[in-house]
Amino acid sequence: MKIKRCSENPIITPGKYDWRAVTVFNPAVLYENGRFYLYERTGGNLRPFKCYIGAMESEDGVHFRHMNSEPAVTPEMFGFPFGSVQDPRIVKLDGRYYMTYALRPCAMGYNPTGLGVPESYKPDYPDGWGTPEHYLTRSGIAVSDDLLHFKPLCYTTPLDINDRDNVLFPEKINGKYVLLRRPEEYIGERYGTDRAGMWITYSDDLMAWSEPKLIAKPEEDWEYKKIGASAPPLRTDKGWLTLYHGVDSQNIYRVGAMLLDPENPEKIVARAKGFIMEPEEYYEKFGLFIPNVVFPTGNIIKDGLLYIYYGCCDTAIGMATVPVEELLDFIFNN
Questions:
Q1: Helices assigned H by DSSP within the chain
Q2: Which of 231, 252, 247, 253 is nearest to 308 (CA)?
Q3: Which of 198, 195, 163 is nearest to 178 (CA)?
């Protein structure tokens, strides 16, 4: 599968404001009224590594400008002044804009080692903060009516497990809201998988969610450690086009693709055995933290092309395109 990278990659890099001085990556993206909206995960420092979400816009999907000099989403909005809000995805549903996010109530500290996975530590916080559960990652949903101002809506996962890569479908299916999850502790015989996989859950009102069901688990060598949902699924005439990420034994992040049944998204219609994207360019191989990472969290279909927006080594943001029909053919034929 040949993905065409934007010639101006990385299209978004750190700087300008103190809350994005260190890094930008893993963006949510929406195309609305002829304009691209992008929500970047940013970091202002490493110790602690406290993250925010900034709002940007563009006419061409390549050259973005900030919509505000302040971040659109902060951990303080959820009542966690020492926390970190991470990895947004966004969809439009029933005329409103819903952003899923991962929230760590207390930010970790990180120290790049130059050897791959960074050293991490738990900073000292005031009494009542920094307890073990505060370092777990919980996911939730924030809502907006104007694509700039967001308000917390609900949590989609409990606080006592690490559960991220929560991704909403952009429309109801059989009258229900649908969400993908990746609970890291759901492994073992009772869960049907020995490594973290992709789960699905439903809701009537976005507030209460059903018990999740496992729909996909690691199968190939490039998925050796875990898989998880990437960008929001997109409806095609062949089913829900769903990108996901896989991590191999050397911590290399690659991108896979599958199709889910349009009326029963628990059913996988087709899943390519091979990945569609892997680190190739220098900005995908070297960065702030873990090297060799392509991590897509936003995608749209426009004029027959799939636009993929992805984080590069937790350091910058890249964009790539591929004709939708070519990608669908690859999924079915591989």
A1: 282-285, 324-333
A2: 231
A3: 198
Q: How far apart are CA 15 and CA 31, in angstroms?
A: 25
Q: Looking at residue 179, what DSSP letter applies?
A: E
**CB-CB contact of 291 with 283 (8 Å):** no
CATH number at 4-333 = 2.115.10.20
The 10 Å CB-count burial string (b at 16+, else e) for 241-274 is bbbbbbbbeeebbbbbbbbbebeebeebbbbbee
Q: Can the peptide bond before residue 10 be classed as cis, meaning omega within 30 degrees of 0?
A: yes
Taking only the tens place, the pLDDT of each residue in 110-152 is 887 766 677 888 999 998 899 999 999 999 999 999 999 999 9
pTM strictly above 0.90 = yes
CA–CA separation, 43 and 102 (whole Å): 14
Domain boundaries, the chain: 4-333
